[in-house]
Automatic annotation (TrEMBL):
The lineage of its organism: Bacteria, Bacillati, Actinomycetota, Actinomycetes, Streptosporangiales. This is Cytoplasmic membrane protein FsxA. Keywords: Membrane, Transmembrane, Transmembrane helix. The chain crosses the membrane at residues 12-29, 41-60. It comes from Actinomadura litoris. It comes from the Bacteria.
Length: 123
C-alpha cells in the first residue's frame, strides 16, 4: 500500500467514524452548534454527520477521491466556528476539559492539510 493510499484510507476512516458518531451519539455535538445558525441544533448535527459520511465514501472511491478530499478540507474549515464555540463554552471547566477544547482549535490545520494532501495525490 502506498503512502497516498494509506493517507486516503485513513482520512476516509476518520470521516466515517466522525460521521457515524454524529448520528449515533448526537447530544455532545448538538452543544457545539453555534446558536446563530437557523433551526435546531440536531438538524445541524445530523447534517454534518451525513456530510462526513458522504465525504468518507467519496474519498474511499478512487474516481471521486479528489473531489471528496477537497470537500473534506472545506468541511474541516466550515466546522471551525463550532470549535470556537466549544472553547468559549468550556473556558470555565476543569483544566483537562479546557485543554481538549483549546487543543481542537489548532488541530483543524493538520486536518485541512491532510485532506488537501489526499486531494493533491489523487491526481
Amino acid at each position: 500500500m502506498t503512502d497516498s493510499s494509506r493517507a486516503a484510507r485513513g482520512l476516509a476512516a476518520f470521516m466515517a467514524g466522525m460521521g457515524a458518531a454524529h448520528l449515533i451519539v448526537p447530544r455532545p455535538f448538538d452543544a457545539l452548534v453555534p446558536s446563530r445558525l437557523p433551526g435546531r441544533a440536531r438538524f445541524w448535527t445530523f447534517a454534518s454527520g451525513a456530510s462526513e459520511l458522504v465525504c468518507a465514501a467519496a474519498i474511499a472511491h478512487p474516481r471521486t477521491r479528489k473531489k471528496g478530499a477537497l470537500a473534506t478540507a472545506w468541511l474541516f474549515a466550515a466546522v471551525f466556528p463550532a470549535n470556537l464555540k466549544m472553547a468559549r463554552d468550556w473556558r470555565t471547566r476543569s483544566l483537562p476539559l479546557r485543554a481538549v477544547a483549546y487543543g481542537r482549535l489548532p488541530l483543524q490545520v493538520p486536518l485541512v492539510a491532510w485532506a488537501l494532501r489526499v486531494a493533491r495525490e489523487a491526481d
